[in-house]
Amino acid sequence: xKIAIYPGTFDPITNGHLDILERAIKxxxxxIITVARNSAKNxxxxxxxxxxxxRTAVRRYKKVEVDSFTGLVVDYARRKKATAIVRGLRAIxxxxxxxxxxxxxxxxxxEVETVFLMPNEKYTYLNSSxxxxxxxxxxxxxxxxPPNVYRKLKQKTSSQ
Amino acid sequence: xKIAIYPGTFDPITNGHLDILERAIKxxxxxIITVARNSAKNxxxxxxxxxxxxRTAVRRYKKVEVDSFTGLVVDYARRKKATAIVRGLRAIxxxxxxxxxxxxxxxxxxEVETVFLMPNEKYTYLNSSxxxxxxxxxxxxxxxxPPNVYRKLKQKTSSQ
Amino acid sequence: xKIAIYPGTFDPITNGHLDILERAIKxxxxxIITVARNSAKNxxxxxxxxxxxxRTAVRRYKKVEVDSFTGLVVDYARRKKATAIVRGLRAIxxxxxxxxxxxxxxxxxxEVETVFLMPNEKYTYLNSSxxxxxxxxxxxxxxxxPPNVYRKLKQKTSSQ
Amino acid sequence: xKIAIYPGTFDPITNGHLDILERAIKxxxxxIITVARNSAKNxxxxxxxxxxxxRTAVRRYKKVEVDSFTGLVVDYARRKKATAIVRGLRAIxxxxxxxxxxxxxxxxxxEVETVFLMPNEKYTYLNSSxxxxxxxxxxxxxxxxPPNVYRKLKQKTSSQ
Amino acid sequence: xKIAIYPGTFDPITNGHLDILERAIKxxxxxIITVARNSAKNxxxxxxxxxxxxRTAVRRYKKVEVDSFTGLVVDYARRKKATAIVRGLRAIxxxxxxxxxxxxxxxxxxEVETVFLMPNEKYTYLNSSxxxxxxxxxxxxxxxxPPNVYRKLKQKTSSQ
Amino acid sequence: xKIAIYPGTFDPITNGHLDILERAIKxxxxxIITVARNSAKNxxxxxxxxxxxxRTAVRRYKKVEVDSFTGLVVDYARRKKATAIVRGLRAIxxxxxxxxxxxxxxxxxxEVETVFLMPNEKYTYLNSSxxxxxxxxxxxxxxxxPPNVYRKLKQKTSSQ
Lengths: 160, 160, 160, 160, 160, 160
Known about the structure:
homohexamer; 160 residues; Rossmann fold; globular; alpha/beta; 18% strand
């Protein structure tokens, strides 16, 4: 069984993340989407909130597991018997950072391969920090996140 | 009448900003240079100081209005009946960030077009944070900013 | 009256070109879309065929003129009393080449400003040479070009 | 069974190609390395020579099939029941071209996913055209290509 | 005598830094490796610790001097009678930032030339912040830093 | 004595090349500017014409030798006892190609270091092919090339 992990901060999960997840599902027998604990400096959502939003958003997919981890991602991959780390590539700036991470991870554990997938081009400009920014300024993020995340974001930002 | 807005942090305004502004003036009937409030984490200059420096620096241009705004830039553009957001493009790193912003802004309001202009190549390396950095280290920034900003920077950094 | 020129090889014109043209129309009083003669090494379509396809494709737009030119684009702009050269920016590779051209053109004539517009992100991957490539391999290019260009491409490639 | 294709010109196959192939083997049940016929303008090696060199170089791998194709790569993938197109990503310039190809291919057939893998960093600078260039100038390419390709290159270039 | 300075934060010095230093030594009569004081926001190591680690790591090189500085790097270069500032270039993101710095430094003092050297490709992915990150997560950084830095990092992170 | 070579096609030599040459002169005891024979597909100028133009243009510099070579640049460097290959870096696209070449050259001969210098930013957009293009279209290239090259270009293009 080919297992892949899809690690990230997911603060919050966006439709771009779900797009990558769906592509990974077609390629692997199991995909573990996993929240990197403590990776965000000042997260908008707690780890538990982020996990909750992911669980609801991915409920409709089979073969997907939701988890969180701390420490090095390659150690986590080894514990999960994963052969691949899935990452989305949207832009050049992604590319450089991701290449650096992939090479370093390979140096630390060369049995896990980083696999890059490209999201639908309509998600080129989409990332969690832009979504948070727009939500804070009361802009409409309905098209960018799953419905449950949309409701959660409205709740969070209306109380500010 | 074609109206463009030129939004930024302008902490402080540099000769590179003025170069872009002059190019925008040739293309539009009115250009509103507008300070994004709260956009800088720890600005060197207060919003009022930044507006003052801009007002003095652009006094010689006709067709230019100075303003500030908060919230989403596309909402501000709509209120001002602007059809264009002007942005300077100097380098690849600018390009990626600006493309992301432009696409997101279009998604939020597709009636405002982002227009990219290229500054004189002598301003390729110039940005406000480098100017602040040099000024703090008592380097000479006379060639990089308008005279009134130069005086203000000297004042600010000599008292440190 | 603000006049812009939109120069290119247009071998053939694609929906990405039309997307940029529509954005330029909103910003200027007149836009001249103009075929750079002799710019393509081995064009698939003759200059006359390219002009014909453009004329049909842009018929529905007001304020648009179709033309062709030879020589330096800045000299052509001057003759047409244009204040702007419109260019689409889709990717980093575009950016470098376009920046180089824009700076060189400004050096040759600093009264014409190059204005960069961003196409809809669904056209990020679209250019004339990919369209030709797919058409030659009998792939379906219906979504990438105007209907009249689609018919012309089928005709051209079926006879090969 | 998960099948991937690894298309390319392979004029000639290098150690960088083999590095990517080995990574793909770990991720898929079968990998078809396939020569794009007529893709090179003036190939150094004929299609048959390139296929021969690949066959010898990949003999030691199980789960690998060697083939060639003409026409669109997505049509070929469909015929082979492949769910993935494997591509190596070494540099930014690769990235832009590959992203464009991947998005266009997805538009033509959204059931095949392009999967990007990163070669060992020692192959960052390696590509077939540099290998040909060095071989023509009698430089030593022993470290860059499999032994059978090395012999073939020496033979080819000594007769010039 | 041709003198070069090699400025940086060195928090801590890595094998990638030593690789660049060795290349610089071949080109110049004296190389001063110099710690930019106060350049790091929240350094892991104090200035004195960083200098100590560098001193031990470079002990085997002749023609190398270890120092630290504050203020503008070009002013420091002038005081040291250096004709060159040495910088390593690993990636595109380095390139843009370094180009900006080099051009600004030239503007402030055009008698000092910035000289870019390329590290061994095995150090492409290596920088001090990744080393710190891995060390904090108890990953093995033995291959990335000199032995004395490795010991110091273990000490520092085991007490956390 | 530190010797550097500055290889290129120089079809023709531009002010940007001279700018890099002058910077190299400050860093090395001797700089050999050397024409790569047969490197250009369809050069505008013959090897002899290119060498003539360089000889006239660099007459005012001491410590400069003019030469040409064929074969691998690292073999040429070895014959000339050079420790450095000088290259200008103007843009990202330069960077990727130059990095690839530098790494390959180092692999072929690790005793020669590639040294990257940055030209004055006013030459960012300047290269020989743009100069040829403008000259062919009767544009004014006076600011881009040395006087003797300007005369030669006029001569060459007026007869066409």
